[in-house]
Predict the 3D structure of the following.
Amino acid sequence: MWKSVFYKEWLKTRWFMVGYTLLGVLCIGYLFLTLKHSFAFTGGKNVWFTVLFQEQQFYSLLKYVPLAGGLTIAVAQYLPETINKRLKLTFHLPLTENKVLLQMQAFGAGCLLISFLMFGGLFTGFSLIYFPIQMVTNSVVTILPWLLAGFAAYFMIALIILEPNWIFRFCYTLIGVFFLTIYFNSAGATAYASANPVLFILTALLSVVFVFSAYRFRKGEV
Amino acid sequence: MEKISRYILVFIAVLTLAIFLPKLYWMAFEKPVWKPFVQYSCINNDFMIQRIREKKWMDTKGKEYSREEYEQTLPMMFFKQLLASGTMPDSINGTALDMRAISREKSFFRLKASEIDAPCPDLYPLFESWSGRAKLELPEDFFRITWRIEFIEASTNKLLEEKSQLFSAALFHNGFSFPAKLISGLPTPRKTCDEGYLIVDSKDQLFHLKMIKGKPFVKKVDIPEGVKFRHISCVDFKNKDFYAYLFSDKNEIYILTQNDYQVIKWLIDGYDLANCDLKIFGDLFNYTVAIEVNDRIKMIALDKQFQVVNTYGEEWPVKEDMLEGRIFASLFPAQLSMTSDNSKFIRFYFSPSNGFNWIFVNLLLMTFHFIWILRRKAKLKNHLADLVIVVLSGIFGFIAIHLFQNKFFD
C-alpha cells in the first residue's frame, strides 16, 4: 500500500521536486563558478585568507536554498489536500489514518533528503578541489543548520496547511517563523558546531507534529 | 500519536517563546547602563573617572575637575589635545617628555571573553619574517598542525611535502609534541613586522615558530612549572617589549618578553577568562589594566616593572537590578538565548530569572488554566500534564498549551 501512497505523492510533487533540485544544482554551479573566478582574479591565497580570517562564507548563497525546498515540497504536497478537503479521501484507504499521514510525510522528507544529499555531495566534491579537508568540514558544519531548517520548514508548513482554523493557522505561522530563525543566527564558520546535535533532535521531533493538525482537520475543527 | 505530536508542539512553542518573548521584552524596556571610563593618572598617582552621562570628571575621592583639568591629569592619554592647547608639561616626575617615546610606549590591548570561546581557524599563513621588503606579503601557502606540520598551497590545494618535512623536523628536534593545542599569531599582513606564531603543543609546552629566509626558526620557551596556557594573544606594539599576553587556565596573566623569552606573571587578581572583558592601556609610565564584568569594573595600575601601584573598583546596577529587571524576573521564569556575550558559539544558553517571584506568576497562571478547565467541564486528568507544564514553564507554557489546545482529548 505504501507504494500507492508514494505514487500519489509523486504525482503531486514531481515537477516541483525536479524543478527545485535543478534550481539547487544551478545555485551550486553558480557558487563554484564565482569561486573559480575569484581564484583566477584575486588568487587562491586571498580567497583562503578571507574565508579563514574575515568570516567570509563563500557558500552564503546556499543559506535559504534548503528552506525554499522545504516550503516548495510542503506546499506542493499538502495544499492540494486541503482543497475541497481532499485529504479526507485518503482517510478512506484501508490503512490507519496516522500511518497514511506518516507515509506522506516520509515521502516528502525523503524527497528533501535526496535533494539535500545531492547538494551536499556536489558541494563537498567541488569544495575539495579548492580547499583542504578542514575548511570543507567547517563549511559543512556551518551549512548543516540551514539543511535542518529545510526539513523543519517542511514539517511546519505541513502543520500550518492542514490546520483547519485560520486563527490557529496564523498562530502556528508565528511560532514557526520565530522557531525557524534559530537555524539562521548570524555567526562565523562552525559557530553552530555544538548546537547542531540539539537542532537535529528538535527537527527530528518536528517530523510527527503535523499529525496534530491532521487530527483536527479530519475531526472538522473550525 | 496525536497526543505525542501535541506535546512536541508545546515543547517547541515553549522553547521558541522562551527565546523570543524575553528578547522582545528587553528590546522594549532595556535602558542603557552608563559605565565609567577610568584611567590611571601619572600626575595624581590616582585613578581619574569620566562619567559620560553626567558629563563629570573626577578622581576616586570625589573631587570634580573641569574637562581641561581632567585631560591635564592624563597627559599620556590626551597628549595630542594638550599639545594643541599648549598645556603639555615638559617633564613628569623628573622624566623629560619626548613625543616619540610617548608614541612608542603607547599601547592598547583588548580581549573579550567571546574571543576566547570562539571557533579557531585550522590553517594559518606563515609569513617570511626577513623578507627584506618594506611591506609584508601574504604567503602562497598555509599551514596546519596535525600529526606534523603541513603546508598547503592555496592556488593548487596541494601539500608542499618538502617544506612540510623541513618544518616538521625542526619542530620535532626541538621537542615539540604533535598535535598542537593552541596556535596564536597575527595572521595578517597589516602589521609592522612578523614574529611568527606561539604554539602550545600536546604536552603544554610553549614554542615560538617563524620562518626566516624560508627556513624554520623554532624556540622552545621555558615556562613556569605547572602552567598551562589556555589562550595567547600576540601583540604588535611599537616598543617591541613583548610578543604576547598569555592567559593560563587559572586565569593568570603573563607576558612573553621579546628576544630574551622571559615569561613574566602579572600579579593581578579578579580576572576570569570566561566572563571578563580585559583592557590594558600601556604608556610611558604605567600599564593600566581594566577588568570589566557585567556589573563592575576593577582597575589595576602597574609600573613599568609590572608591579601593582594602585587599584580601584566600582560597581553599578545592572538591568536585572532595575524595576524592569524585577518585572522581568516575575513574568519570566527563565530566558533562553542562542547567543552569548561571552561566546561566539551558537548554543542554547539558559539563564534562570533572579529570585522566586516567577513561581507566584506560574501558580497564578496554573490557577487560571484550572478554572478554564472547570468552566469547560473537561476531565481534569486529561489536563494534568498541561497544568504541570504551566507550573514549570510559566507564561511560555501557558501560551503554548492554549496555542496547541488539548481540546480533542477530553
